[in-house]
Design goal:
120 residues, mainly alpha, two-stranded antiparallel ribbon, 8% strand, 2 domains
Length: 120
């Protein structure tokens, strides 16, 4: 019974291997957590990163900017008329006379996202 059984050496070896595997998984998750925390902090603290993400993921533009959609390499002329381009989106203060921009030049407080029509 010393080697086999619920409290034998084989069970002890299996439990140690399982413990080592759990510790490795924990270390991997810890590193992933640190990486995600770094990315969140960079997004929150770096205005350039925040602007890039707003432009890429949300299609936001600054007032007065024109948006051009260019076909990718290998894309020929469409067989039918193209769909109208989506309207650009501009972030504005949520309330009239919202809070003044911070020293970084970015408005503080909530933002309201509104669609802008094409320039007239």
């Amino acid at each position: 019974m010393l080697i086999f059984g619920d409290r034998g050496l084989l069970e002890l070896k299996r439990l140690r291997e399982e413990s080592a595997a759990v510790a490795r998984g924990n270390a991997e998750l810890g590193e992933r957590n640190r990486d995600l925390t770094r990315r969140v902090n960079q997004t929150r603290d770096d205005p350039a990163t925040l602007e890039r993400l707003a432009r890429e993921r949300l299609g936001m533009v600054k007032p007065g900017e024109a948006v051009y959609y260019v076909p990718r390499d290998g894309e020929g002329a469409p067989a039918q008329a193209p769909a109208p381009a989506p309207k650009p989106v501009v972030a504005q203060p949520a309330s009239p006379g919202g809070t003044a921009p911070a020293a970084s030049g970015h408005a503080q407080g909530p933002l309201k996202v509104t669609p802008e029509g094409p320039p007239q």
